[in-house]
Amino acid sequence: MLRIGLTGGIGAGKSTVSSTFSELGGIVVDGDIIAREVVEPGTEGLAKLVDAFGRDILHDSGELNRPSLAAVAFSDDEKRQTLNGIVHPLVAHRRSELIEAASEDAVIIEDIPLLVESQMAPMFPLVIVVNADAELRVKRLIEYRGFTEQDARARIAAQATEEQRRAVADVWLDNSGSAGALVEQARGLWHDRILPFAHNLRLGRPVHVEPVVVPSDPSWPDQARRIVARLQTSCGHRAVRVDHIGSTAVPGLDAKDVIDVQVTVASLEVADELAEGLLAAGYPRVAAITADNPHSADTALWHKRFHASADPGRPTHVHIRVDGWPNQRFALLCVDWLKANPGVQQDYLAAKQAALRAPDYAEAKEPWFLDAYHRAWEWAETTGWRP
C-alpha cells in the first residue's frame, strides 16, 4: 500500500487533483468529506462544537451552520485551536478506519487540507502540494464558492504559508493556469511517479540509480530534511539519531543525485526491527548488502542494514548502522571533514570522475576511501572533532 498526502490552501485546486487521481484508480480519503461526516446531527463531534461555541452555530434544523461556525472559530487563534482540537481527532479516527478497509496494493490519496498545520507530512512516503497565488485563490473563492472577500482572506491567513508548504512538499503542483492544465500535471505525476512507486513498493524493489555525477543541487539539503523527518517518524525512539550524510550533504560538491541518510541504532537487532516500518515509509530493504567495506581491522564492526527508496522521483539510500561502530562514526566524520577542507572535496570529485570509467563505480572509489579514512581521523584528532 502506498499512502500519499495531498494538501493545498483553500481555493488552490486540491479537489481537482484528488478527483483526477480517483479517476485513475486511486482511493481518495477526503479530509473535507470526513470533517463533514463527523459533525453531522447526532454525532459526538457536533455536540462538542455546540458545547464550545454555542447553539448559534446551528441551523434551525439542527444541522451545523458552517458560515456561522467559521465566523466564530476563525476570529482568533485560540478559538481556531479549539475547533481543531475537537475535529482533528475525530477525522483521524475515521480516516484510519477507511484506510484499514483498503486492499494491500491500493494507492491511498489522503486529501488533508491542514496537513501542514497538523504536522502530518512526515507520516507519508510522498507529499503533494497544490498551490496558487493568494490573490487568485481569493478571486476563486468569491466567484465559485460565494465567499466575501473578507472571509476569503481570513481563511487563507489562518492556514499555512507558502513557505511552510514548500518545506514539506515532495511534489509542487502549480495551479496558476487552467483546470485542464492542472489535470494534465496530475495525470503525468500519476503515470510517471506514483504508479511506478506503488509497483516498486509492492515488489519490495528499490530504484536503481545509474552512477552519474551531476552538479551540486542547492535543494538537496531541503530534500534531505524531509527524508530525515520521515525516517524519524518511521523509526521513532529506536533511532538514536538520523543524519544526512554522503556527498549531497556537502554544499557545492558535485555528486550522484542520491540522498544518503544514516539511521543510528543501538544494535543490528534493532535495525532488523525497523524493516517493516521502513517499507511502509517507501524504503525496501536490500538484503544483499549487509556491510560496508572495512577500513580498519575490526571488520565485524562494519556491518549494517541497507534500505533504498522505491520512489523513482527521489532516489535515497538509508544506511542503518550501530552507534559507536567505526562505519557509523566515519559517515558523520567524513561530511564534516569534507566541509572543512575544500581541497579534499576536489580530490574526492576527481576520484568520482575516474570511478565513472570503471566497471564498478562503488568499488573503484574504495582505494580513495581507504586513504581518506586515515586522513579524516588525523584531522579529527587535530581539531578535537566529535560526532
From TrEMBL:
Transmembrane stretches, start-end: none
Keywords, in A-Z order: ATP-binding, Coenzyme A biosynthesis, Cytoplasm, Kinase, Nucleotide-binding, Transferase
GO cellular-component term (any): cytoplasm
Enzyme class: transferase
Alphabetized SUPFAM superfamilies for the sequence: Nucleotidyltransferase (SSF81301), P-loop containing nucleoside triphosphate hydrolases (SSF52540)
Main location, first listed in the record: cytoplasm
Entry-linked Pfam families: CoaE, GrpB
Positions contributing to ATP binding: 11-16
GO-annotated molecular function: ATP binding; dephospho-CoA kinase activity
Compartments reported by the entry: Cytoplasm
Pathway(s) served: Cofactor biosynthesis; coenzyme A biosynthesis; CoA from (R)-pantothenate: step 5/5
Record field: catalytic activity: 3'-dephospho-CoA + ATP = ADP + CoA + H(+)
EC number from the UniProt entry: 2.7.1.24
GO biological process: one example: coenzyme A biosynthetic process
Record bears the keyword Transferase: yes
PANTHER family, per the entry: BIFUNCTIONAL COENZYME A SYNTHASE-RELATED, DEPHOSPHO-COA KINASE-RELATED
Role played: Catalyzes the phosphorylation of the 3'-hydroxyl group of dephosphocoenzyme A to form coenzyme A.
Family indicated by similarity: In the C-terminal section; belongs to the UPF0157 (GrpB) family.
NCBIfam families on file: dephospho-CoA kinase (TIGR00152), PRK03333.1 (NF002879)
The name this protein goes by in its record: Dephospho-CoA kinase
Organism: Mycolicibacterium frederiksbergense
Origin organism lineage: Bacteria, Bacillati, Actinomycetota, Actinomycetes, Mycobacteriales
Name of the encoding gene: coaE
